[in-house]
Design brief:
The chain is an alpha+beta fold. The chain is 19% helix and 31% strand. Strands 1, 2, 3, 4, 11, 12, 13, 14 and 15 form a 9-stranded mixed beta sheet that branches.
């Protein structure tokens, strides 16, 4: 139903609904005091608010994308179109005319500096030998000379306590004291091995500069120059506000799902509220429509639904509500506020009585 139903149509729909519930009486007597109207409101507004400013910028290298940006003379007077949808955020980056330039990096030489890790040598010192990973460079390097090359005696080597034949079979001839079956099979009694990194040369390639003796200057990213300019920025961001008057909580599902809400959309600051609103409704919504500073676009959506409250004398403990729906007039009923309070008081008294009985029982048991 696109229009607001008349009082007579509402009373007729409520009478039919009450009759289906077994209430055989007209919902209203001779007067009109049994029917009252309320307009449910759901108002939302989103504004696109613009902020502007400028800042100095300095970035490594030569940036072609910066040169292709639009330019401006005065950031506060530069014109940009408002967004088509105020819900969306949008940013614009600009370059002030005549501010784009380049400057040489003063902290490097063409984008590189001498490597500090190796001192510009390209190599780093490295131990020529490393301890044997099997005997760990200790006395177990050789059971006879302990890696020194000097045998403990000229007699045949003796076995250590607990040494088995399998242990002796795993040993090899010592390259220092030249005794068989006593040396570590890895280092053969020398305790150390040639360094696998430097191959006994005593130096390795510097990992920081990969042997080139120079490293890239990170600040200018190896370009040796900076692009400088004054950047102007314009941000358009949504700001939202809402005002709702949806009536009783236990009616919101019914009115929200089946009610035929009339919707009005206001997009300009000069657009006016519908003329059928009450003065109190206009006073509630008018502050939200006042233009804000730097507002460039808006969309205000007002949804409203007329809701009739009817009292049926033959059913004094229930409130009847009717409102237009997409198929006609929708009618529903709820317990009156007095009835709800009555049952709440009974429930509260019952809980209090139960608590007193429980406390008395506990006292008697003690």
């Amino acid at each position: 139903m696109d229009r607001r139903p008349s009082d007579a149509e509402i009373l007729e729909a409520v009478e039919a609904y009450a009759r289906r519930r077994g209430v055989a009486d007209r919902p209203a007597g001779p007067g009109a005091e049994a029917l009252t109207w309320q307009v449910l409101l759901d108002f939302r507004i989103v504004r696109s608010v613009e902020t502007r400013g400028e800042r100095p910028k300095r970035e490594p290298g030569s940036r072609d994308d910066i040169a292709s940006r639009p330019t401006y003379t005065d950031i506060h007077s530069h014109r940009v179109p408002p967004p088509d949808d105020p819900e969306l955020s949008r940013s614009r980056l600009l370059v002030r005319g005549g501010s784009l330039g380049e400057e040489r990096c003063a902290d490097c030489d063409g984008g590189t500096n001498r490597c500090g890790a190796c001192g510009g040598r390209g190599v780093r010192d490295c131990p020529r030998f490393v301890d044997c990973p099997v005997c760990e460079g200790g006395p177990d390097a050789c059971w006879e000379c302990e890696g020194t090359g000097r045998s403990r005696s000229r007699r045949p080597p003796h076995l250590r306590a607990g040494t088995t034949s399998a242990d002796r079979a795993a040993r090899v001839r010592c390259t220092r004291c030249r005794v068989d079956d006593v040396a570590c099979p890895k280092c053969r009694g020398r305790r150390q091995l040639d360094c696998p990194d430097c191959k006994k040369s005593g130096h390795v390639q510097c990992t920081a500069c990969s042997g080139t003796k120079r490293v890239t200057h990170q600040e200018c990213q190896g370009t040796g120059r900076f692009t400088v300019w004054t950047e102007g920025w314009i941000h358009q961001n949504p700001h939202r506000a809402r005002e709702r008057r949806l009536g009783r909580l236990d009616l919101r599902r019914a009115t929200g799902n089946t009610g035929h809400w009339h919707e009005t959309v206001l997009r300009k600051t000069t657009d006016k509220l519908p003329g059928d609103l009450e003065d109190s409704d206009e006073a509630l919504l008018a502050p939200h429509l006042t233009p804000r500073k730097d507002e460039v676009a808006r969309r205000a959506t007002l949804r409203r639904l007329p809701l009739a409250h009817v009292r049926v004398p033959a059913d004094p403990h229930r409130d009847y509500f009717a409102f237009p729906s997409h198929t006609g007039i929708e009618v529903t009923s709820r317990p009156t506020t007095e009835r709800v309070r009555h049952f709440a008081a009974i429930a509260g008294a019952s809980l209090t009585l139960v608590a007193l009985v429980a406390a008395l029982a506990v006292a008697l048991l003690r």
